[in-house]
Design brief:
The chain is an alpha+beta fold. The chain has two helices and six strands; from the N terminus they run H-E-H-E-E-E-E-E. Helix 1 packs across helix 2. The longest helix has 17 residues. The protein binds zinc ion. Zinc ion binds next to loops.
Length: about 110
């Protein structure tokens, strides 16, 4: 799953808006939840590049891996989680539908100074 800079930019803008709300001078850490483990090598440099020159520059990036959420439309709409991005339904063995399909990561919280 591709990680594109507009989604990273949107996350940073959210973090910067939160920092501004609490009158912080700097964002010292970004805590992210990652739903696609493969995206981590691409995520870190993008955050560094896009935060350059903003109050989030040099923020520590903490990444927590979360299992992907799936739903199976083959059997009974079973919901299940898996670390595998192409997981099969544990009930019927058909491939599950990834939920939500376009979210690679989410901003969990920030730390500011
Ligand atoms: Zn199923």
């Amino acid at each position: 799953m591709a990680l594109e800079s507009p989604v990273v930019q949107a996350m940073l803008e959210q973090a910067l808006a939160e920092a501004e709300t609490c009158h912080a001078r700097r964002v010292t850490a970004l805590h992210l939840v990652l739903y696609v483990p493969d995206a981590e090598p691409a995520l870190r440099p993008l955050v560094a590049e896009l935060s350059h020159g903003t109050p989030a520059q040099d923020a520590e990036v903490h990444i927590r891996h979360a299992p992907s959420n799936f739903i199976c439309w083959n059997c009974c709409g079973l919901r299940f989680t898996s670390q595998d991005p192409d997981a099969d339904c544990p009930n019927c063995g058909e491939s599950g539908l990834l939920l939500p399909p376009d979210i690679v990561f989410a901003l969990e919280r920030i730390q500011v100074a």
